């Protein structure tokens, strides 16, 4: 007779074997199901690449703490047909922003920063354009794009600088368009400030902070911040533009310079996957708390409504548009999604994850302003979340076709209504040349060459084409070609004496045109040339004015007034260096200077030279 223990062993054996078989079968079925999904994704993603004329892109999918899918599509070097891999480096643009804010999250855990403090506490020389901004803006406002400032992007894009000090000074002269926390408005400058706050608190650069706090701990060994570092990597992608006709053109890399905290990182989908894994797992990576857990929750919670509106009829289950700290937030078909895109010359990106589903998706492409990251992200989301796939690609292709038709109609309408201006500029073209400066933007030089006015900003060039009166179209030369479709409007302005004193440029859509002050080109004159003007002149026959040379420069002295340095701007014509709208013009006869006229807003005063 079997003992009770023997009977238990027999029963265990009889039931254990079928259970093991069931587990093996279930695991095999799950693996097969995943394999089918990934095969489908291979097909769907390549279909999207071809339909959207994308040169190349890479994808990585993470679940919980593992990469479950990583692959490259198309080419990183179109000219030589070199394929993209999951390790190919791309510029990730503004997907960098979450790194910048997370540095402050780590520093808050170390009690080095208070998010409710004014940024001026950490950058004492920082000033905003309005007193209320200096008093009321706090660090959280920088992180959630709610300071009341518009983008002012051309201030750094056209006038880049490696000097953080110079960029901080510019912020004081950048006007807001609304009140504090009244409206969400994307602003790269405020992420530059976050990077600088982190640098002030640690004594290290933004790049060093991100490297040490995140890259080093996440195994992101090839990720970097500078174009030279990207260029020397063997597995890097070139950037490309693709127009609505599908024509592909290679683009130059863009050096974002000191604005790096807003979008300078270069990385691969394989390395960025570790970043997404960290966020999915509450800030942990391989058991180590990389980002404080309380910051992770706060950063991916809503702090500002991005835009008002209800879901579309086509997609009633895609809802809301909010912003956390360096992340966009939305409800995607019933699933909470955290995402941030990125666009910079030749590259587009999307980093996204679904925290409650433990799913992350990284898309990097070498197409400028590409719709592909969003399309690919949504296609992958539908399959991985086991949703009925929507036709994201078809809808996007339809919109692109509509945009193509609209562009053609707009061009035809513009061509048919184009007219030759019946007006003329108020001055000869040479009078518009000079240096134009705005303290919140930078300097641009305008020079006359071969009857055309050329513009050079800190980085980009362009040329002017007369439109009406003193208004010109400025065509920016971008990536080697003039942007004929979207000219900037430059309106020149005159001072009280009728001279060109500045220009207004429509560089910020949310504000009135930005006014740049003109400084005429200073001509270099020899000492012999300067000596021709020396002497005493009797203004109105009653007051003596002396013109003399001091330290190789020409000066004018009127009794009872300070001496004025004279700056040559043309033949016998000088500006008073410290007085806008005041100038002197000398008269010549038979090779000799015989008189001078002081031209002022209140009149012109002539004086003959004393013999």
**How many domains would you count in the coordinates?**
3
CATH topology of the largest domain, anyone?
Beta-lactamase
Write down the overall mean pLDDT: 91
Overall, the morphology is elongated
The strand order across the widest sheet is 3-2-1-15-14-13-12-11-10
Number of strands: 32
Instruction: Give a quick account of the main beta sheet: strands, pairing sense, barrel closure.
Output: 9 strands, antiparallel
Binned, the helix content reads 25-40%
CATH-defined superfamily of the largest domain: DD-peptidase/beta-lactamase superfamily
Protein name: Serine hydrolase
Pfam families: Beta-lactamase (PF00144), DUF3471 (PF11954)
Domain Beta-lactamase-related: 45-375
Keywords: Hydrolase
Helices and strands in order:
Elements: H1 4-51, E1 56-63, E2 66-77, E3 82-83, E4 90-91, H2 97-109, H3 131-136, H4 139-143, H5 154-157, H6 164-171, H7 188-202, H8 206-218, H9 227-231, E5 239-242, E6 248-251, E7 266-267, H10 269-280, E8 284-285, E9 288-289, H11 293-299, E10 304-305, E11 318-323, E12 328-332, E13 335-344, E14 347-354, E15 359-365, H12 372-384, H13 392-417, E16 434-438, E17 442-449, E18 452-456, E19 461-468, E20 471-478, E21 481-482, E22 488-494, E23 500-505, E24 514-519, H14 527-531, E25 535-539, E26 543-550, E27 553-557, E28 564-570, E29 573-576, E30 583-589, E31 592-600, E32 603-609
Antiparallel strand pairs: 1-2, 1-15, 2-3, 4-7, 5-6, 8-9, 10-11, 11-12, 12-13, 13-14, 14-15, 16-17, 16-24, 17-18, 18-19, 19-20, 20-21, 20-22, 22-23, 23-24, 25-26, 25-32, 26-27, 27-28, 28-29, 29-30, 30-31, 31-32
């Amino acid at each position: 007779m079997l003992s009770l223990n023997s009977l238990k062993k027999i029963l265990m054996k009889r039931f254990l074997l079928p259970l093991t078989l069931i587990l093996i079968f279930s695991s095999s079925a799950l693996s097969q199901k995943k394999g089918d999904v990934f095969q489908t994704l291979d097909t769907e993603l390549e279909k999207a690449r071809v339909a959207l004329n994308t040169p190349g892109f890479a994808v990585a999918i993470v679940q919980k703490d593992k990469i479950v899918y990583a692959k490259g599509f198309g080419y990183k070097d179109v000219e030589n047909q070199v394929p993209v891999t999951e390790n190919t480096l791309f510029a990730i643009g503004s997907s960098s922003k979450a790194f910048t804010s997370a540095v402050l999250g780590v520093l808050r855990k170390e009690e080095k920063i208070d998010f409710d403090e004014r940024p001026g506490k950490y950058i004492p020389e920082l000033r905003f354009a309005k007193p209320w901004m200096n008093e009321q803006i706090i660090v959280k406002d920088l992180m959630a794009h709610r300071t009341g400032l518009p983008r002012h992007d051309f201030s750094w894009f056209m006038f880049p600088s490696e000097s953080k000090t110079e960029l901080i000074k510019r912020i004081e002269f950048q006007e807001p368009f609304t009140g504090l926390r009244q409206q969400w408005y994307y602003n790269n400058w405020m992420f530059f400030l976050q990077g600088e706050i982190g640098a002030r608190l640690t004594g290290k650069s933004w790049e060093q902070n991100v490297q040490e706090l995140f890259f080093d701990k996440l195994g992101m060994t090839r990720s970097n911040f500078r174009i030279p570092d990207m260029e020397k990597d063997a597995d890097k992608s070139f950037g490309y533009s693709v127009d609505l006709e599908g024509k592909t053109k290679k683009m130059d890399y863009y050096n974002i310079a000191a604005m790096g905290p807003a979008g300078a990182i270069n990385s691969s989908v394989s390395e960025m996957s570790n970043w997404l894994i960290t966020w999915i797992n509450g800030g942990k990576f391989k058991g180590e708390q990389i980002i404080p857990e309380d910051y992770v929750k706060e950063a991916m919670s809503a702090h500002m409504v991005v835009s008002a509106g209800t879901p579309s009829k086509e997609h009633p289950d895609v809802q809301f548009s909010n912003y956390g700290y360096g992340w966009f937030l939305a409800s995607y078909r019933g699933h909470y999604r955290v995402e941030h895109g990125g666009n910079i010359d030749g590259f587009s990106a999307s980093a996204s994850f679904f925290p409650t589903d433990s799913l992350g998706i990284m898309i990097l492409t070498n197409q400028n302003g590409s719709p592909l990251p969003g399309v690919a992200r949504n296609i992958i989301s539908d399959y991985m979340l086991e949703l009925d796939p929507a036709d994201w690609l078809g809808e996007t292709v339809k919109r692109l076709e509509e945009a193509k038709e609209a562009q053609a109609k707009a061009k035809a309408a513009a061509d048919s209504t184009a007219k030759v201006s019946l007006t003329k500029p108020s001055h000869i073209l040479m009078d518009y040349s000079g240096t134009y400066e705005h303290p919140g933007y930078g300097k641009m030089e305008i020079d006359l060459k071969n009857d055309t006015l050329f513009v050079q900003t800190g980085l980009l060039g362009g040329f002017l084409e007369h439109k009406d009166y003193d208004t010109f179209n400025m065509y920016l030369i971008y990536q080697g070609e003039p942007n004929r479709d979207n000219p900037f409007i430059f309106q020149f302005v005159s001072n009280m004496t009728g001279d060109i004193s500045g220009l207004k440029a429509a560089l910020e859509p949310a504000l009135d045109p930005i006014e740049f002050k003109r400084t005429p080109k200073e001509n270099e004159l020899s000492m012999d040339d300067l000596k021709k003007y020396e002497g005493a002149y009797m203004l109105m026959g009653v007051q003596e004015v002396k013109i003399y040379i001091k330290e190789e420069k020409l000066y004018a002295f009127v009794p009872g007034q300070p001496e004025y340095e004279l700056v040559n701007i043309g033949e016998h014509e000088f500006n008073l260096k410290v007085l806008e709208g005041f100038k002197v013009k000398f008269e010549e006869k038979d090779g000799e200077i015989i008189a001078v006229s002081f031209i002022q807003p209140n009149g012109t005063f002539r004086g003959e030279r004393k013999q």
